Amino acid sequence: KAGVTQTPRYLIKTRGQQVTLSCSPISGHRSVSWYQQTPGQGLQFLFEYFSETQRNKGNFPGRFSGRQFSNSRSEMNVSTLELGDSALYLCASSLGGEGAFFGQGTRLTVV
Amino acid sequence: GDSVTQMEGPVTLSEEAFLTINCTYTATGYPSLFWYVQYPGEGLQLLLKATKADDKGSNKGFEATYRKETTSFHLEKGSVQVSDSAVYFCALSDRGNDMRFGAGTRLTVKP
């Protein structure tokens, strides 16, 4: 069974640009969550989608948004990028309460 | 709200030493508890889990017991190896994929 796949693995963007990250969950998993990981703030929850609906949202500005498609694939978008958005963005999929399975992440660098 | 507190690192041990990483939690319900491990440049991997009080999760020589009376889920391993060097995260989930993570503890094992 394929794991969680995130694309791209690495990304360099300029301040003010926008970026879209993609996540394909494990087959059969309907819940997808996104996290931001930085050395200073650690792992921070961005949002969770379940059956194309946002179920939970963390404490991030509106520049961070996401969506989920009918095949459970998910995208997150960050608009008007800031230097502080440089981070590892992790996607996780889940089936019930069995725990979350993470992808390898997308390393975003904003210059 | 729900939260997880784990011992601060970094932790440095010699090979074959005994490992304990403390984790305590605060939750209003009856959460499931998890330990994740993150190797450099990778996403988080589920190491072990416990879904109810007194359950013991175990994997690859690591163990943790869900202690409701002390709200703890300490990670232990009897004899660490250099390959165990990584960052370890304690986490809880009280519904589906809505997970709360600790700050992470970096473990370095020296030969």
Keywords:
heterodimer; A: 111 residues; mainly beta; 4-stranded antiparallel beta sheet; globular; B: 111 residues; 6-stranded mixed beta sheet; 0% helix
Q: Which helices and strands appear, and what pairs or packs with what?
A:
The complex is a heterodimer of chains A (111) and B (111).
Chain A: E1 5-7, E2 10-13, E3 19-24, E4 31-38, E5 42-50, E6 53-57, E7 64-68, E8 74-78, E9 87-94, E10 100-102, E11 106-110
Parallel strand pairs in A: 2-11
Antiparallel strand pairs in A: 1-3, 3-8, 4-5, 4-9, 5-6, 7-8, 9-10, 9-11
Chain B: E1 3-6, E2 11-14, E3 19-21, E4 23-26, E5 32-38, E6 44-50, E7 56-59, E8 62-65, E9 75-77, E10 86-93, E11 99-101, E12 105-110
Parallel strand pairs in B: 2-12
Antiparallel strand pairs in B: 1-4, 3-9, 5-6, 5-10, 7-8, 8-9, 10-11, 10-12
Explain this structure to me?
The complex is a heterodimer of chains A (111) and B (111). Chain A has 111 residues and is an all-beta fold. Chain A has no helices and eleven strands. In chain A, strands 2, 4, 5, 6, 9, 10 and 11 form a seven-stranded mixed β-sheet that branches. In chain A, strands 1-3-8-7 form a four-stranded antiparallel β-sheet, with no helix packed on it. In chain B, strands 2, 5, 6, 10, 11 and 12 form a six-stranded mixed β-sheet that branches. In chain B, strand 10 and strand 11 form a beta hairpin. The model of chain B has no long low-confidence stretch (mean pLDDT 92). Chain B is mostly beta strands and 111 residues long. The chains are: A mainly beta (111), B mainly beta (111). Chains A and B meet through strand 4, strand 5, strand 9 and strand 10 of A and strand 5, strand 6 and strand 11 of B.
